[in-house]
Amino acid sequence: MFFIERLFRIFWFASVMSYSAIKVFVCSFFLKDKNSFFFKEMSKWASGILRATGTEVVVRGAENIAPNETYIYVANHTNYIDIPILVKAIPDKIHFMYRASLQKVPMLGLALKTSPFIPIVRENNKNALDGINKAVTSLNNSGSVILFPEGTRSKTGELAPFKRGAFLIASKSNKKIIPVSIVGVEKICPPDKNLHFNKGQVIVTINKPIESLSEERNELSQQINSLHAFISEQIHTVQVK
Predict the structure, then answer these.
(1) Which of 107, 146, 204, 235 sits a CA distance of 20 to 30 A from 182?
(2) Please, what's the b/e burial string for 185-199 (b: 16 or more CB within 10 A of its CB; e: otherwise)?
(3) In the chain, what are the domains?
(4) How many other CB atoms are found less than 10 A from the CB of residue 42?
(5) CA-CA distance, 183 to 157, in Å (whole number)?
(6) What's this model's pTM, rounded to 2 decimal places?
(7) pLDDT per residue over 110-167, tens digit each?
């Protein structure tokens, strides 16, 4: 019975991904306000993925987000499912930064190419800087930005060191930063098993905003270390069912 349920969840997951990607790609040719349509569809997509994987999202601290303000959200990252979890948890138009190579992934690449999200080529410093500038523009014009400052997914659940480059957006934009912790993902989607979903609960904690980061190198390093310690402590203290 468990095997049949697992196959069903994988099929459901793939169907949601495919349908949403094709719908966004096709409709983008006919709509004037593509961004509004995309964010509405992204919310539906996130709900579908979470239902398919049996993920219950519990949100704490949503009241810390002011309705008409844009932020930089800084979150830990353990699995691709973090993205629909954050879309569901954060009541804001959030722009993700993603590896440009993901545009080559079938179906997903179609949606990313038509999205307002920001592609980054890590090996190309100029492209990375262009991505940072686009993120700053998004903050000023159309919504918030979310960063995974570890630079990649954690395979152990432990918070990896933060990469300094991710915080250039914060220092350039002077926007407030909201630390976010995601706890429980590794039990639902084990890092060593692809497309293996276990029903379970994830707790997303949206903390109070902190002031923008300093542009002075030493002070910025101290602020980044403090932010890392804060999120790391929360990951280890929040209890999931």
Answers:
(1) 107
(2) bbebbeeeeeeebee
(3) 2-237 (3.40.1130.10)
(4) 23
(5) 9
(6) 0.85
(7) 778 778 787 777 655 555 667 667 766 766 666 788 888 888 777 777 898 888 777 8
